[in-house]
Design goal:
The structure is a homodimer of 355-residue chains. The first copy, chain A, has 355 residues and is α/β, with parallel strands linked by helices. Helices cover 42% and strands 13% of the residues of chain A. In chain A, β8, α9 and β9 form a beta-alpha-beta unit. In chain A, α3 packs parallel to α5. The radius of gyration of chain A is 19 Å and the shape is globular. Chains A and B meet through α8 and α9 of A and α8 and α9 of B. Chains A, B: Its cofactor is FMN. Chains A, B: InterPro entries: Aldolase_TIM, NMO. Chains A, B: Keywords: Detoxification, Flavoprotein, FMN, Monooxygenase, Nucleotide-binding, Oxidoreductase. Chains A, B: Belongs to the nitronate monooxygenase family. NMO class I subfamily.
């Protein structure tokens, strides 16, 4: 077993470590530090306007000459039902009032923004694009391939992995149920649930089904997780929570502390923050929403309806009214620089491989 | 890294592979074959009367001179609410009628049966006892230790592992959320849920918290899973689903086929069969129970209420009205002898360790 393989060559990186998109929490410093330390930094651009994306890419390019990625959310099917949005707005009213926030104007044109982001990625010569929530259409894939941009998809089941491979992506992030933040799923199970397959199960089953390289994610925080993932059939790992608590991350110290003080049993899967299922630390917002007696509006509607409340709460140091994405291994989180984190993981991995 | 460590010495086995209890599906042939092949076979005695347990142990002792285990269910808190039992009996009536089955007489004395089983284990000189659903009391632990019987507990969270270690067990099965069958949990999370932590997360976090050996379980089916578990900090693995489809297992061919034809997304966690949460292949019984508008009676009440229906359905070849426990890696299940399964796992593990 070794740490370099097809994936380090394809991505042009020294170590098989990818920093997850973590929309809302990446900084150009984090992305560039990860890339400069031998991994692949990712700009979490899921919520960015094209203008913001262009700025962030320019900033990252000033900080590193090494490869980095941009993570984008593929537009997904959504239902806009005015009554349900009105109902949710009524429910959120007291919280908006408490934080002195206006009702938001919804921006429903995900596809326009996504296509514009693809144009920015091409213009700026971004080396790698990773996709969450689905597979881009064939026109988009062809455009990226024409420019030799490496395309990485996300799968939470074997079928999603096969669909990604058939569409022509270069590598696949296999997301286990331990992962923090949004589920990358774009299919449902036979019982109409979002797939929640543990990393120990999903990686070897995907490895048996496809030929392109796999990047394992979900619960991986250290050298043990990296080597275990390679043993299971992956060629690299993607980590979100592990990078969220590093010095360069954009997460607030409140949020970093919440992760470092959490137990492995403190997270839940919930769609109440954004309209899509995601794993985060349980808090009052989630409990209160348990009492909401209607469907939660689809992503990105619910995301836009709650976004300002969550931002304001986070800024005021209120951990109970904001999302606290975290995977199931918070006990392994370290508050160090991203460079030291990567060094420790590589040293631990080499020690394990030689033991 | 190597395949032998403290745990193979403590258990007196050649290979670090434990066959899970799988109450209702183990046979003396399976247990003895696993032990004779270098692993640790386990008699799944969770539902056995003391008389049945004694017979099974005697049979296993005739088939092997090597160590084996008995798996027992620790009696747990339960509420017997006559109205709720009556309601469930009314709901189950049409199914009992269809299968020509009488309403069962409930046997509520778990503790008496458990204590009797401990006496049998001591009298018969069983070398290893594994416990599910809790930690036995100190009197029981002292009795077993006095006879040099190795005690193995089950944990689904770090706190459960620490509690097991403090109680004096010799090793701990760390059960990840991928595992098929009953959750071994005996605590709930902050949000009152059964812990469902993926194997990739639970093993290293428990390894950092305790000093006694860990047996990893959940989603492990082959050499990749064994070596990955050792990398994560375990010293052995326990497998249920992988042994369920072997030739010596007591599972019906219907059940074996269902597992081998399943996808990783086909299982759900449900308490409708026994009153305790367990992972199994989704079917009509589970769907129908979704419509039941009352609490499911606690284990072992619900188990006894539905047991005859499930047995009769299984015997009639009806996979929709029986429990089909399976972990999240059914695509990796093999229908071979337990001996060949163990040989393959060890060969694959050695190849991985030397690669």
């Amino acid at each position: 077993m070794k740490l370099s393989s097809r994936i380090t060559e394809v991505l042009g990186i020294r170590f098989p470590i990818v920093q997850a998109g973590m929309a809302g929490n990446t900084t150009p410093e984090l992305v560039a530090t990860v890339s400069n330390s031998g991994g692949l930094g990712s700009i979490g651009a899921g919520y960015f306007t094209p203008e913001r994306l262009e700025k962030e890419i320019t900033y990252v390019q000033q900080l590193t000459d090494l490869p980095y990625a941009v993570n984008l959310f593929v537009p997904s099917q959504k239902l806009y039902i005015p009554d349900k949005v009105e109902h949710m707005n009524a429910w959120l009213k007291p919280y908006r009032r408490a934080f002195n926030i206006e009702e938001p104007v919804l921006n429903m044109d995900e596809t326009h923004q996504f296509n514009h982001a693809i144009d920015v990625v091409i213009e700026k010569g971004v080396p790698v694009v990773t996709f969450t929530f689905g597979i881009p259409d064939q026109i988009t894939i062809a455009k990226l391939k024409e420019r030799d941009i490496t395309i990485v998809g996300t799968a939470t089941s074997v079928d999603e992995a096969i669909a990604n491979e058939s569409a022509g992506v270069d590598a696949i992030i296999a997301q286990g149920s331990e992962a923090g933040g949004h589920r990358g799923s774009f299919t449902v199970t036979g019982s109409n649930q979002t797939p929640l397959i543990g990393t120990m199960s999903i990686v070897p089953q995907i490895a048996d089904a496809i030929d392109i390289p796999i990047i394992a994610s979900g619960g991986i925080m250290d050298g043990r997780g990296l080597v275990a993932s390679i043993v299971l059939g992956a060629e690299a790992i993607q980590m979100g929570t592990a990078f969220l608590t590093t010095e360069e991350s954009g997460a607030s110290s409140l949020y970093k502390n919440m992760i470092q003080q959490s137990k492995e049993t403190d997270t839940v899967i919930t769609n109440v923050f954004t309209g899509k299922p995601a794993r985060g630390i349980d808090n009052d917002f989630i409990h209160k929403m348990d009492e909401y007696n209607d469907d939660i509006p689809d992503y990105p509607i619910q995301n836009q309806l709650t976004s300002a409340i969550r931002k304001e709460a986070a800024q005021k140091g209120d951990a109970q009214w904001t999302h606290l994405w975290s995977g199931q291994s918070p006990r392994l989180a370290q508050n160090v620089s991203a460079t030291l984190l990567i060094q420790r993981i590589i040293n631990e991995s080499k020690a394990l491989l030689n033991s």
